[in-house]
Design a protein that fits this description.
Length: 346
């Protein structure tokens, strides 16, 4: 058998990942000294107003990241902004760059490249009046998106720029009370550990929901229908999410159980889940995920794998709060924003 040709380097394969909203904030600083600082502040450098040019250079640098860093993925950036702060006390210039994209991988490198582009331009235009320049403190401050959610550097974010990426943390399910039901013959009998249920709990709690209960049931239509009815009719739960039982095998009966106890369905939710999964995994089109309403409680049936939980929650996040509010009888008087929050009072 012929050995495969070795490859010393490769880009990470993100083909199987679903895109999600990504954002990052980075910073850096250039120490310029008192003489150069006055020139920068007054716009009297020989080559012109460096602050405006540095902003443009930072944006250009962020957009060119994949061309500068060999293994970095090219990303369709949705937003780049560069902020420059004159620090009189240290006769330095601080640069901050925020980048955002709806992508399969993060935008940290784009934010850092933007900072570097601006700092190097500051260096280039300032060196005619002061050669003793020091670029320092380049670091990532905040990143958002992906499985790990929000990360903030241990040193924190300077108060001066805290408002650029406030810790709203996209918690659209604040005040939503949820229940989880894992559907699996083997997990319910103890044959193997339920991994999708805890994964779903973590995802819901990360989005702000309070999980009141988490059950593991066998793939029995009567038992599933009874438990879902009891949860919905009890009046305490706003949202029920099941995991498992959405396939085509004879024991996959989650859709049948939900259809039995619900009259009003939301077919678009199942369609959105299948469309997102089908872009990367053809078998996702075999899933029978669905959503319906019973007694002002939204019920959503998801597939049973932990990876499917991650991908499904990324799909649901932008509109799940709005769907829960409507199921409870709220008026359709506002549009949900892409960050998962309603565009008006809920």
């Amino acid at each position: 058998m012929t050995e495969p040709l070795p490859a010393a380097f490769h880009m990470a394969d993100v083909g199987g990942k679903s895109p999600s909203f990504r954002r990052a904030l980075a910073m850096g600083r250039i120490h310029v000294g008192a003489h150069a600082f006055d020139h920068i502040k007054n716009g009297t450098l020989p080559k012109g107003d460096v602050l405006k040019i540095a902003e443009i250079a930072g944006i250009t640098g962020a957009k060119a990241t994949a061309n500068l860093i060999p293994l970095c993925h090219p990303l369709p950036l949705d937003h780049v902004a560069v902020y420059i702060d004159l620090e009189q006390d240290t006769v330095s210039v601080a640069v901050y760059c925020v980048a955002a994209a709806y992508a399969k991988t993060g935008v940290e490198m784009e934010a850092l490249a933007g900072v570097n582009g601006a700092l190097l331009t500051l260096y280039d235009l300032t060196k005619p009046v002061e050669p003793a320049l020091t670029i320092q403190d380049i670091r990532l401050l905040v990143k958002e998106g992906g499985k790990k959610g929000r990360w903030v550097c241990p040193e924190g974010v300077p108060e001066r720029v805290a408002g650029i990426m406030p810790d709203t943390q996209d918690r659209p399910l604040e005040e939503v009370k949820a229940a989880i039901v894992t559907l699996s013959d083997r997990a319910s009998s103890g044959e193997y550990e339920d991994k999708s249920g805890p994964k779903l709990r973590a995802a819901l709690e990360f989005l702000g929901a309070e999980v009141l209960s988490a059950d593991i049931l066998p793939d029995d239509e009567d038992a599933i229908a009874a438990r879902l009815s009891a949860l919905a009719d009890g009046g305490e739960v706003d949202l029920i999410i099941t995991t498992g039982g959405t396939g085509l095998t004879p024991r996959d009966v989650a859709p049948e159980a939900i259809a039995r106890i619900c009259v009003k369905t939301a077919p678009g939710i199942g369609e959105a889940l299948r469309a997102a999964g089908g872009r990367h995994l053809p078998t996702a089109w075999l899933s029978r995920s669905l959503a319906a309403v019973r007694a002002k409680t939204l019920i959503v049936a998801l597939p049973g794998s932990p990876k499917a939980i991650d991908e499904s929650m990324d799909v649901l996040k932008p509109f799940l709060r709005h769907a829960v509010r409507l199921a409870k009888g709220g008026k359709h008087n506002c549009n949900p924003r892409p960050d998962g929050h309603s565009g008006g009072a809920s």
